[in-house]
């Protein structure tokens, strides 16, 4: 049996030879829908053995096992013609008489593209994918780890990086929220499904019966705006044993007016990493009350979360520093949050957690709806010993959060066991109000003296500008030389 890791690497190498897949994002989108069909086909084979009455939502001609499994089968231009003119168009128009999985497949493929232009290379990719048996637990688990790595590689694929939240962060947030079997869960900015897959693993540790597993299948919901992360999320959920992941929709959560969300749609637990630094399209802000209107995505999601939680509901989300110190609309949003919810903990993450996608400093906010905030505890997450930043080769690890877990305590007793230390401090609501709801509060125990003296910084800045000008001049000269040859 070939090593799954080597197979996936070989697939990527084959795709790099194709003129159509010229970047990581295109290759992963291509792999996303191909893996989806193979994983779904393996799952169907299993269901056909288990259920005498199982009927596939796909016409026989579109099933992976029909057109893909024969290594000497359709290839070259004939394969490209089949995929471009039959397979993808028919999947995009799939009807199933209300069948949930048919609707899911149609949604998953509505924006799917075949980027490959060489049908022979396409056949090679298909044959390699056939080397993975998603019904074999060893293959499935190994592929799950590789798939996680593929998603992580998206961080260096331009804007696609926003889809991936480091596994250590999703695990820590779910661990601290501690969802229980029977509770409802939502991620309104699902990305590739990191929080939901962590939720599934967390709940399976509690599951004892088949009825518990059925609860897990339907206890969560998600919404993802962009096609690529949506199909990657669906594939991720199939890998995690979710039979019909149709409760993750391809949509923009913020496009729905806030007032339209009814009490029956409220949930017990929310965990999310809303896109930050982005602006919503014109008109989206008008879905929100006048005092909260902004086009900044992360701020609108914070308003939405307050609405979507049940009384007593718990939330954990990733937010940038800008929301913490921002004024104007941001101040009004924070005042509402601290009035309607108990913002009990802010974990301040160091620079580089989301490298190389963004160097923006981020925070983990944990709050419970229903009682106002009396004090906010801060915990400044340090770099591991010897590290000065994170990068692709050395990301943040779940083991680093052991200190926070040991310190955390219980919300039931008001976190009475928490103590201030070199990393942790608390701030009263009165102090926060006096500071006009600025939550960007520095560690009082830190020896950091701030950004530095302007008289020292200005010469450094001018030196940097001079270096930039010199580099620009060299590049210009090289370009002119190349053009005049």
Molecular structure report:
- This protein is an alpha/beta fold and 485 residues long.
- It has two domains: 4-133, Ferritin (Up-down Bundle), CATH 1.20.1260.30; 155-434, Vaccinia Virus protein VP39 (Rossmann fold).
- Helices cover 44% and strands 12% of the residues.
- The protein has helices spanning 4-16, 24-50, 64-67, 76-92, 100-109, 119-129, 137-153, 167-177, 194-204, 210-218, 227-239, 297-308, 321-325, 329-340, 402-408, 429-434, 454-483, and strands at residues 185-187, 220-224, 248-250, 267-272, 309-320, 341-348, 362-369, 375-380, 424-428.
- It has a nine-stranded mixed sheet with strand order 3-2-1-4-5-7-6-8-9.
- The radius of gyration is 25 Å and the shape is globular.
Count of spatially separate domains: 2
How would a textbook summarize the main sheet?
Answer: 9 strands, mixed
CATH topology of the largest domain: Rossmann fold
- CATH-level-4 superfamily name of the largest domain: Vaccinia Virus protein VP39
Which CATH architecture of the largest domain would you pick? 3-Layer(aba) Sandwich
Count of DSSP-assigned helices: 17
Order of helices and strands: HHHHHHHHEHHEHEEHEHHEEEHEHH
What is the residue-mean pLDDT, rounded to a whole number? 87
Task: Let me know the number of strands.
Answer: 9
The coarse overall form would be: globular
Terminal CA distance: 54 Å
Strand line-up across the major sheet: 3-2-1-4-5-7-6-8-9
Structural category: alpha/beta
The amount of beta strand, in percent, is: 5-15%
Model regions low in confidence, pLDDT < 50 over at least 5 residues: 452-456
Q: From the alpha-carbon coordinates, what is the Rg to the nearest angstrom?
A: 25 Å
The percent of residues in helical segments reads: 40-55%
So what's the CATH class of the largest domain? Alpha Beta
């Amino acid at each position: 049996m070939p090593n799954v890791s080597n197979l996936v690497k070989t697939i990527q190498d084959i795709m790099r030879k194709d003129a159509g897949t010229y970047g990581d994002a295109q290759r992963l989108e291509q792999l996303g829908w191909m893996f989806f069909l193979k994983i779904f086909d393996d799952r169907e084979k299993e269901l056909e053995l288990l259920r005498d009455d199982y009927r596939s939502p796909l016409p026989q001609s579109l099933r992976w096992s029909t057109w893909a499994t024969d290594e000497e089968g359709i290839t070259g231009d004939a394969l490209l013609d089949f995929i471009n003119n039959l397979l993808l168009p028919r999947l995009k128009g799939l009807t199933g008489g209300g069948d949930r999985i048919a609707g899911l497949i149609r949604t998953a493929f509505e924006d799917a593209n075949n980027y490959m232009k060489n049908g022979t290379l396409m056949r090679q990719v298909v044959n390699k994918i056939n080397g993975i048996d998603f019904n074999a637990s060893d293959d499935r688990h190994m592929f799950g780890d590789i798939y996680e790595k593929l998603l992580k590689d998206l961080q260096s694929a331009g804007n696609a990086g926003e889809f991936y939240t480091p596994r250590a962060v999703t695990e820590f947030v779910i661990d601290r929220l501690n969802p229980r079997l029977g509770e409802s869960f939502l991620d309104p900015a699902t990305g590739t499904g990191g929080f939901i897959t962590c939720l599934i693993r967390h709940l399976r540790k509690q599951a004892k019966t088949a009825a518990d597993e059925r609860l897990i299948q339907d206890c969560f919901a998600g919404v993802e705006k962009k096609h690529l992360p949506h199909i990657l999320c669906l594939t991720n959920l199939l890998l995690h044993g979710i039979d019909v992941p149709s409760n993750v929709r391809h949509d923009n959560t913020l496009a729905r007016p806030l007032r339209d969300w009814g009490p029956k749609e409220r949930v017990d637990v929310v965990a999310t990493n809303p896109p930050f630094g982005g602006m919503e399209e014109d008109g989206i802000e008008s879905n929100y009350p006048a005092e909260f209107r902004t086009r900044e995505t992360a701020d609108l999601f914070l308003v939405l979360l307050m609405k979507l939680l049940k009384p007593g509901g718990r939330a954990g989300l990733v937010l940038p520093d800008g929301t913490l110190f921002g004024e104007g609309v941001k101040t009004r949003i924070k005042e509402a949050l601290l009035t309607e919810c108990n913002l009990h903990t802010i974990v301040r993450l160091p620079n580089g957690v989301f490298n190389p996608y963004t160097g923006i400093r981020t925070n983990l906010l944990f709050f419970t709806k229903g009682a106002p905030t009396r004090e906010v505890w801060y915990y400044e997450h340090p770099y591991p010993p010897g590290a000065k930043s994170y990068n692709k080769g050395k990301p943040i690890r779940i083991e680093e959060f052991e200190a926070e877990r040991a310190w955390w305590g219980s919300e039931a007793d008001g976190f009475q066991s928490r103590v201030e230390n070199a990393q942790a401090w608390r701030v009263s609501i009165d102090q926060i109000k006096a500071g006009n709801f600025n939550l960007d509060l520095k560690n009082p125990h830190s020896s950091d003296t701030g950004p530095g003296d302007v008289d020292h910084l200005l010469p450094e800045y001018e030196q940097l500008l001079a270096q930039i000008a010199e580099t620009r001049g060299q590049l210009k000269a090289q370009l002119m030389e190349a053009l005049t040859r």
